[in-house]
UniProtKB/TrEMBL annotation, chain A:
Pfam families: ECSIT_C (PF14784), ECSIT_N (PF06239). This is Evolutionarily conserved signaling intermediate in Toll pathway, mitochondrial. It is found in: Cytoplasm; Mitochondrion; Nucleus. Belongs to the ECSIT family. Its main location: cytoplasm. Residues 222-347 form the ECSIT C-terminal domain. Coiled coil: none annotated. Keywords: Cytoplasm, Immunity, Innate immunity, Mitochondrion, Nucleus, Transit peptide.
UniProtKB/TrEMBL annotation, chain B:
Pfam families: CIA30 (PF08547). The lineage of its organism: Eukaryota, Metazoa, Ecdysozoa, Arthropoda, Hexapoda. It comes from Chilo suppressalis. Its main location: mitochondrion. Keywords: Chaperone, Mitochondrion. This is NADH:ubiquinone oxidoreductase intermediate-associated protein 30 domain-containing protein. Signal peptide: none annotated. It is found in: Mitochondrion. The keyword Mitochondrion applies. InterPro entries: Galactose-bd-like_sf, NADH-UbQ_OxRdtase-assoc_prot30, NDUFAF1.
């Protein structure tokens, strides 16, 4: 019996206890929605709606509900990455009122709904990678005081977010270009950044008279790749592989690769113990790295599943545009392509996958077990 | 069929959404055996019920079945024990790592290595629609791929969705005794991948004995270049940050290299769509030029501000 009583105490849930710290994050029903009837969904309209709410009622009744409703509609208005909009929302909360005045208030989450609301706001900022600034800190300090949980959340964010903001070795601009050509250029530049010698070409398919699709092609080929292509055996066909995806943040760029055969492994039958006639090293060793690891070929383009001869992205990603790409490669310094066969192994573009809208139904077996 | 579904949904409500006291739950609501009902306990204040945090999918089997299954495994377990005793007698552990050489923990060149990993995604627990798979790629490597979906199921409980993860199985000694990796002679993680431009999360779990350490995972980001070229990422262990249940902790500390229990990779960058990560190997290296112990500040802050 004692064990049971103890267990009851130990498993007590926050709802049963006095502390209701984080329970209040269940969103309340918003009664008043000033965002619904906005003709234009943009930043001005959003800020205006907040201003209307602030001026409507001196006591600003229902401001927590208002902030939750506003947070939910940020994406709709396109302000979910806008620090100013978040600041305007924080500004709705009254200053000074929620600052705890004694240690009990400070410890037991003074004004829990309001604090949780501000924490949720900060969390949404974090999810959208919006870094707050010191003005926001001042606002939060004025609203919740030093001991407020939103302020601590802010401090945590300001500690961690700058550490990770510019960590990526392939940094992207804050706003990706809207133009697909510019985006494709960035993507191809990024995926071919292994070879600093790479040259990016932007061609128009109009140059090839037989082409049907009139579009652009971003093609990348380095001088080493040109040599590798020129040395391809004539009887072995080259393969155009793709489409593959590369993500530039949330934008997807489709690219294709032209792949040839890997050169045969260099064989060395010389007796390495024979020191009577040591020749000068040829300069390019066959392998780099220790023999324990999977071996690496001497150019980065030679990989174990083939030699990457060129990479491209086209405006339409169609078969015809790729044919034009091969013809253009041939035109610009790759004469071997006129003699060598090229195979197109294009799978149909990965169309939308059928995704069930509702929860997946239980399987038959599971049903049998259950019943 | 129909009545069953109704029953299921009803019990869903009573199990998860309503708050019962512990007593009434035990007496009035004997837990119905339901196939995929999500049954994650609410936040308890003092203790964790199980290591899986309510996501335990292991099935209970009867004692006789247990004995039958166990009998089949005795031979293999004794073989393992023999190997352990042999290693103990030989007493030839690796004391020093050669600088600049990578020791591979997993080299994904055959399907048997892939079986040491388990993939999970939120659809496994009816908490989302993401899918994931770990398969051999056409180049003969491990391919962690799937579809990331950030739609939230409309069950009124889940706020966010969209993750897919692979994690190594717990390393063990013979007779199913749990063991840990001992990586104390290394200081760098080396991973050779071919990604798709997304950023992934590397997770090193250091589960301890007590329940507050069960969810301790050290994280770091793996940025992938994308494209057809392989990339080798070398990440010092000092850069890994401590998180628990996905939340970065205020009180950070360096990981215990001799208590590593799992290694995993997560895809959860909030970008819906397909993901592809081809992995050639995961290894460890000792870099003598890297003498940083922990990359993040460890200074003391005011009382009652941090870790509350």
């Amino acid at each position: 019996m004692a064990a049971r009583i103890l267990r009851t105490f130990l498993t007590v849930k926050p709802s049963n206890s006095i502390i209701k710290r984080f329970e209040s994050n269940k969103k309340s029903v918003s009664v008043y929605d000033p965002f619904r009837n906005k003709p234009q969904k943009n930043k001005e309209a959003y800020l205006e709606a907040i201003k209307i709410f602030e001026s409507q009622d001196k006591r600003r009744r229902g401001h927590v509900e208002f902030i939750y409703a506003a947070l939910a509609r940020m994406k709709e208005f396109g302000v979910h990455k806008d620090l100013e909009a978040y600041k305007a929302l924080v500004d709705v909360l009254p200053k000074g009122r929620f600052i705890p005045t004694n240690i009990f208030q400070a410890e037991f989450m003074h004004y829990p709904k309001q604090q949780q609301c501000a924490v949720d706001l900060l969390e949404q900022m974090e999810d959208n990678a919006v870094m707050p600034d010191s003005e926001m800190e001042q606002m939060l300090l004025n609203i919740f005081g030093r001991r407020g949980i939103p302020v601590r959340k802010f401090w945590r964010m300001m500690y961690w977010m700058p550490k990770f903001k510019y960590l990526s070795p392939w940094l992207l601009p804050d706003k990706l270009p809207d133009d697909t050509l510019e985006l494709a250029k960035m993507a191809i530049q990024r995926i071919t950044s292994v070879d600093p010698d790479i040259i990016l070409d932007i061609w128009q398919t109009e140059e090839i008279t037989a082409s049907i699709d009139k579009t652009w092609i971003v093609s990348a080929q380095s001088r080493a790749q040109k040599v590798l292509l020129a040395e391809q055996p004539l009887d072995e066909p080259l393969v155009v592989k793709g489409p593959y995806n590369v993500y530039m943040r949330d934008q997807v760029v489709t690219y294709f690769t032209l792949i040839g055969k890997t050169r045969p492994e260099p064989t060395d039958d010389r007796d390495i113990d024979d020191v009577s006639n040591i020749s000068k090293p040829t300069g390019i060793p066959g392998f780099i790295g220790s023999t324990k690891l999977p071996s690496v070929k001497c150019t980065v383009h030679e990989q174990d599943d083939g030699t990457i001869v060129s990479v491209c992205a086209t405006g339409t990603s169609s078969r015809d545009s790729l044919l034009s790409w091969i013809r253009l490669l041939e035109k610009y310094d790759n004469p071997l392509l006129s003699e060598i066969p090229v195979i197109f192994t294009l799978t149909a573009p990965p169309s939308d996958i059928a995704i069930q809208e509702t929860q997946p139904a239980t399987t038959e077996e599971a049903n049998k077990e259950g019943t | 069929m129909k009545s069953f579904l109704k029953l299921k949904s009803l019990s869903c409500i009573s199990n998860n959404c309503r708050q019962h006291s512990f007593l009434t739950k035990n007496v009035i609501q004997p837990k119905a055996k339901l196939p995929i009902t999500q049954n994650v306990s609410s936040r308890f204040l003092f203790w964790e019920r199980d290591r899986k945090g309510g996501y335990d999918t292991s099935q209970k089997i009867s004692l006789s079945e247990h004995l039958k299954e166990g009998y089949k495994e005795i031979k293999g377990e004794f073989k393992l024990l023999g190997q352990e005793i042999k290693a103990l007698i030989e007493t030839d552990p690796l004391l020093v790592a050669r600088p600049g050489e990578t020791d591979l923990i997993w080299c994904f060149n055959k399907p048997s290595v892939l079986e040491k990993f388990i993939t999970t995604s939120d659809s496994d627990h009816n908490e989302g629609y993401s899918t994931s798979k770990l398969e051999m790629s056409s180049a003969g490597r491990a391919l962690f791929h799937g579809n990331l979906d950030v739609r939230v199921p409309k069950d009124g409980r889940i706020k966010k969705a969209g993750y897919a993860a692979m994690r190594s199985q717990r390393i063990r000694k013979s007779f199913k005794r749990e063991a840990t990796y001992d990586w104390h002679i290394y200081n760098t993680l080396v991973i050779k991948v071919r990604g798709d431009g997304r950023s992934y999360l590397l997770n090193i779990s250091c589960e301890g004995y007590y329940d507050i350490t069960w969810n301790d995972i050290y994280h770091y980001v793996l940025y992938t270049r994308g494209g057809p070229y392989w990339q080798i990422a070398k990440i010092p262990f000092s850069k890994f940050v401590l998180g628990s249940k996905g939340r970065l902790q205020d009180k950070q500390n360096r990981m215990r290299f001799d208590k590593v229990t799992h290694f995993g990779i997560t895809c959860g960058d909030k970008i819906p769509g397909r993901f592809n990560l081809e992995i050639e190997y995961i290894g460890l290296e000792f870099d003598p030029t890297h003498d940083e112990e922990f990359a993040y500040e460890m200074y003391k802050t005011d009382r009652y501000i941090v870790g509350v």
